[in-house]
Amino acid sequence: MVVSNRGPLTFRRTAEGWRAGRGSGGLVTALAELGRLAPVTWVSAALDADDQAAGRFLSEGRAAAKAARGPHAELREIHSLVEHQLPGQDIRLRLTDVPPEAYAAHYGIVSNPFLWFMQHEMYRLPYEPIVDDVLVAAWRDGYRVVNELLGRAAVEGLRSRRPVVLLQDYHLYLAAATVRALRPEALLLHFNHIPWPSDSTWQLLPQGLRRAILEGLLANDIVGLQTDRYAQNFLASVASFVRDAQVDFAGRRIRWRNRNIFVRAYPISLDPDALVRFARGEAVAGRRAALKARLERAGGPRLIVRVDRLEPSKNVLRGFLAFEALLARRPELRQAVRFLAIQSTSREALPEYQEYATAVREVVARVNRLDDPESAPIWLLDGSDYDLAIAALQLADVVLVNPLVDGMNLVAKEAVLVGAPVLVLSETAGAAEQLARDALMVSAADVAGTSRALESGLLMPHDERHARLRRLRASVRDEDIAWWLARQLRDLVAVAEGARPPSRHLRDTVRRHEPGLEDSSEATPS
Amino acid sequence: MVVSNRGPLTFRRTAEGWRAGRGSGGLVTALAELGRLAPVTWVSAALDADDQAAGRFLSEGRAAAKAARGPHAELREIHSLVEHQLPGQDIRLRLTDVPPEAYAAHYGIVSNPFLWFMQHEMYRLPYEPIVDDVLVAAWRDGYRVVNELLGRAAVEGLRSRRPVVLLQDYHLYLAAATVRALRPEALLLHFNHIPWPSDSTWQLLPQGLRRAILEGLLANDIVGLQTDRYAQNFLASVASFVRDAQVDFAGRRIRWRNRNIFVRAYPISLDPDALVRFARGEAVAGRRAALKARLERAGGPRLIVRVDRLEPSKNVLRGFLAFEALLARRPELRQAVRFLAIQSTSREALPEYQEYATAVREVVARVNRLDDPESAPIWLLDGSDYDLAIAALQLADVVLVNPLVDGMNLVAKEAVLVGAPVLVLSETAGAAEQLARDALMVSAADVAGTSRALESGLLMPHDERHARLRRLRASVRDEDIAWWLARQLRDLVAVAEGARPPSRHLRDTVRRHEPGLEDSSEATPS
Fold first, then answer.
1. Which residues of A touch B211 (CB under 8 A)?
2. Which among A132, A229, A404 is the nearest to B126, CB-wise?
3. pLDDT tens for residues B247-287?
4. pLDDT for the residue A303
5. For a Cys staple, B4 with which of A292, A411, B168, B328, CB 3.0–4.6 Å?
6. Which of B128, B136, B443 sits opposite A521 (nearest CB)?
7. A353 chain-B contacts, CB cut-off 8 A
8. Of A199, A212, A447, which is closest to B131 when you measure between CB atoms?
9. What is the Cα–Cα distance from B19 to B8, expressed in whole angstroms?
10. Is the Cβ pair B125, A121 closer than 8 Å?
């Protein structure tokens, strides 16, 4: 059983019949193959009236759909859409009705702006967040309500004696408590896809709120996070804010109200074979040819690539500032290198995002001066074009992934599988714990160091680059999406047997490479 | 021996002879009485040419000054200024020459904007800090240089076999290493007056920089911080970023390169008797009478008071928003209560501060509407008037101290000594660990909860209020400035004897009062 806010498919009734759209987020990608491995029920919220109608058809089951005739054509249609979108899977979708006002408060006030911003440390703390009566009401009448409804829907679908329930992400911090209350013997694992900040961030929130979140999560048997660091932060916040919990930091275990809760890191990943297949496809080939032609017109420059949404946590601004510093130090690179940023816009309605996009555009304009599009050092291209993004990663000499904070950054893993770049990665990227040894590591605020790392990446000798790449690829292939899921299920089996989940620590390799500050970057007279 | 960036006195040569100004910061107040207890040498930087000249006179010593005649009149003058400003003290000031460019980089680029902002978590992380070549050069040619010069100056003044050196604050993270290298047997304690953030903040900085800071501090025998929480954060940052250190969290001890370094909390305090004496003086009485008269003209309202610099970390904005919410909920309080904010401006040249001040003024204008000055609910008065601040604390029914982050907040301690208010205190105030039990605790972002706490403070029955006050006063009187200093010296004596410093933990009372979120604040239809 999987419980998430959004399911793998959303449904739309059109004049030509039913249509289904597949979610594009990492969560759906990660879990959508689960139904190949085991029978799965996936509980999620019905997002609108069409989803609700589809949900009612889906609740009738496949057998009914197969038997359906005539007036029940829609029932057949919905079920065949699911089979078409999620082929070969033993999957049962349960789209759960939630009151629209509750969902709006849950998603539009609590989860998406408030929790997401807080956990990505994107608030300007002197001004935000404001925990006011509106937020408190949205918590009570929205977040709590939706969590209880999805928790109850999950319980209705539970068949086996010790059902396994995988709860997903920050929309559902309280759902496990509902499941636990009704089915105490269930095996519950909550996996959080976004960062878990340090307790000094949580400390700004009301005690009642942070305790509700933490105690909600402690209804699980295992709390899974993307990295060791987030796991450590989670343990620290329980130690700080849940009075009656005992925290064993070394064992990553919490004792609370006569139960054990284990905290583990399960870094999310991708399906390497599927990705490589996709990268070899015609659509990507077309993009690659076009991009190559453009590079040839520009005189065949080396290529730095980044692929991300244009949002403040991704640290695009300092990436361009680092490139600007590189061109100031090595003016000959102005012709010999292009920085290709494949960017999709994000939350454009939010003033913070608009302001950030403006600041980024100003730096781009300053670097590009009045050069014509081919000779301008920075190329901005449309990030909604996934084919193009993969093609760019294939052609990259250096890929820059330097977020201030980010759950995982799958693009770092994609880059080494489809291309052969040097990876410049910030420590605060979720992927850093796995890839630090063979990437060039920078810290996110270090523009001088990032600038040197881009230069080192461009200059890296072929042999060293390929030795690093081999190890990076091996690591990404080993620790793929199946490994991500298998470790969670293995750990739940251990819990079921009364043992400790074996996945205690990832390797922490972030600290290995430590150049002195003044070794790596020198002052230039400006 | 005390080493700090600024000394207790600054000197100015005027047409009428030499003048000395006494620093107003908490550091000077805290340490200026040290010379009554023991012979002290105080090393600091000479801030300008006058300071340098005075420094040369001071270096000649008191005996020479006493013998000075005729052309050496200035020598006498300087020494008698010191005796006048720091009466009854066995103190020797060593004002150390530092190159002006180095000092400018040290103070104006590294310490004051960069480290101060970073440690108060006041940066807008998507935009700042930018660790560029300018900052790296200022670190190397400014911060490092000034630290070495002050460290060397300290060593020159060391007489005893195992001299005790107390290093102060974030300007001097590297000075202990210089002292240690030259006098390995010295007993070194660094006390940091500002917060120590969690390692996720430090992680944004270059490895070389954060390691230099941490390893510089590990040259001490004891690292002292304001609170248990900062001590814990310090231990965690050493564990994360200093590869070859072993951290014993429970024992608050670090093992590094064959030495032990202890981490302790020494919450800074004030001199209760001196404060009470001052509060009974005529100057304060005059302000109190004027303020009382104004309150009477306003119909004798109840009084909420806050006293702080107008800066983003103080959270003035949310304080006023909480008051606005209170007036919206209880309109009758509009006439019956005044919120008196005694505010001094701060760093007005910085755009961040200007923007914050504007945001605060907008809320004040909205709350006050077009009311005349007496009937307006919020009164803003000049915070550079310390007499007035004390008078206001004496008359306060409720005192609000709700910073987002702050080293200590001595105003919370002053308030309960000179007045009889209910104290509303945020958890993130440094004073929270000592005063949480008897203050009304809020979290800094919780406008709804702060609003309720202000209301509870105004409504608190006399007996409860005085029971809380008695305990608060006893705690502040017990843990005064002499206690602050005595614990440090006692701990250093223990180190000298090869024992563990006894001051291991403060009580952590912040977690005691935990109302549910929805208990403490309800949604109001708006």
1. 514, 516
2. A404
3. 999 999 999 999 999 999 999 999 899 899 999 999 999 99
4. 98
5. B168
6. B136
7. none
8. A447
9. 13
10. yes
Domains of chain A: 2-21+43-96 (no CATH), 100-269+481-496 (3.40.50.2000), 272-478 (3.40.50.2000)
Residue B111's CB is within 10 A of a number of other CB atoms, namely 21
Residues of A in contact with B518 (CB under 8 A): 136, 139-140, 208
Q: Is the pLDDT of residue A520 over 50?
A: no
3-state class (DSSP) for residue B71:
helix
Full DSSP string of B45-65: E--SHHHHHHHHHHHTHHHHH
With a cut of 50, say whether residue A255 has pLDDT above it. Answer: yes
CB contact under 8 A, B198 and A203: no
Give how far B106 is from chain A: nearest CA, Å.
Answer: 15
Q: Which amino acid is at A429?
A: A
Interface contact flag, A136 B448, Cβ < 8 Å:
yes
Is the Cβ pair A444, B212 closer than 8 Å?
no
Q: Which of B315, B321, B519 sits opposite A208 (nearest CB)?
A: B519
In angstroms, the separation between the Cα of residue A93 and the nearest Cα of chain B is 34
Q: How far is B356 from chain A (nearest CA, A)?
A: 8
pLDDT of residue B510: 42
Residues B159, B164, B165, CA angle at the centre, nearest 5°?
100
**Taking CA A477 as the corner, what is the angle to CA A476 and CA A482, rounded to the nearest 5 degrees?**
100
Q: Per the CB < 8 Å rule, is B136 touching A526?
A: no
Across the interface, whether the CB atoms of B517 and A206 are under 8 A apart is answered yes
Cα three-residue angle B101-B104-B105, rounded to 5 degrees: 90
Q: How many CB pairs under 8 A join A and B?
A: 210
**Token output for B345:** 């401006």
Q: Which residues pair with A378 in a beta bridge?
A: A339
Enumerate the residues of chain B whose CB falls inside 8 A of the CB of residue A518. Answer: 136, 139-140, 208
Contact A126 B524 (CB under 8 A): no
Average pLDDT over residues B332-357: 93
Interface test with A, best of B242, B363, B443 (most A CBs within 10 A): B443
Mean pLDDT, range A48-52, rounded to an integer: 92
Does residue B508 surpass a pLDDT of 80?
Answer: no
Which pTM does this prediction carry? 0.93
Q: Tokens 């920089």 correspond to what residue?
A: B209
- Beta-strand runs (E) in A364-432: 378-382, 398-401, 422-426
Q: Is the dihedral of CA B289, B293, B296, B301 positive or negative?
A: negative
In chain B, residues with a C-beta closer than 8 Å to the C-beta of A249 are 249
Q: How far is A404 from chain B (nearest CA, A)?
A: 7
Which single residue is written with the structure tokens 């340490």?
A: B31
β-pairing, B40-45 with B2-3? Answer: parallel
| pLDDT tens digit sequence for A370-427 | 999 999 999 999 888 999 999 999 999 999 999 999 999 999 999 999 999 999 999 9
ipTM of the assembly?
Answer: 0.92
**How many helices, marked H, and strands, marked E, lie in chain A?**
25, 17
Nearest to B270 by CA among B378, B390, B379, B367: B390
Q: How many CB atoms lie within 10 A of CB A238?
A: 23
CA distance A376 to A380: 10
Alpha helices in B132-218 (DSSP H): 133-138, 144-156, 175-182, 199-202, 207-217
Mean pLDDT of A162-170: 96
Backbone angles phi and psi of B195, in degrees to 5: -65, 155
Digit-coded pLDDT (tens) for B197-252:
999 999 999 999 999 999 999 999 999 999 999 999 999 999 999 989 999 999 99
**Contact assignment for B131 to A313 by CB distance below 8 Å:** no
Q: For residue A158, what is the enclosing H or E element? A: none
- A416-445 tens-digit pLDDT: 999 999 999 999 999 999 999 999 999 999
